[in-house]
Amino acid sequence: MDELDQAAPDRAAESEALPPDDEDVEEGVDRRKFLARGTLSIGVVLAAGWTVPAAAYVFGPARKSDTTEEWVSLGAANKVPVGEPTLFKTTVVRATGWVTSEEEIAVYVLTEDGRTYTGLSNVCTHLGCRVRWVDDSDGFFCPCHNAVFNKDGSVATGPPPRALDAFELKVEDGQLFVKLEV
User: Fold this and answer.
1) How many domains does one find in the chain?
2) Domain residues for 118?
3) Given this model, what pLDDT does residue 3 score?
């Protein structure tokens, strides 16, 4: 029995030195799993930190409403002589996606009675050339293909497929305003 008593402490020392079996381990996280989960969590946070702003940058302009209508001032209504189209120019800031640009809009304004006003574009409907009012021929002349438009903007001669584009105008406190899609 002496031998058995001496072997018992040796077995106890051996069992303390050996790693525990899976059955003996409590439901905990060892160091390796903790570091792996921590690294994964940090990676997810970093990826979300880059992905969310990138997605907002890419898809943000597509979520904006297409256009808004705005009344833009052209100038004093008393500058338009009765029966003669007068060219007014204004600058409009347009935002398309990420690009913001300034665009010059030109409108011919005509009044026959001094109270009601008509606005016509100065862009030919054929190729987009700029038309000009010619007093001698009493019409708008396009230099690209010698097209002529009547005073009301309808096609008199030439290849344009339709009349000049019309703008909605209003007068407030003696100032002319044109309705534009910005």
Assistant:
1) 2
2) 69-181
3) 55
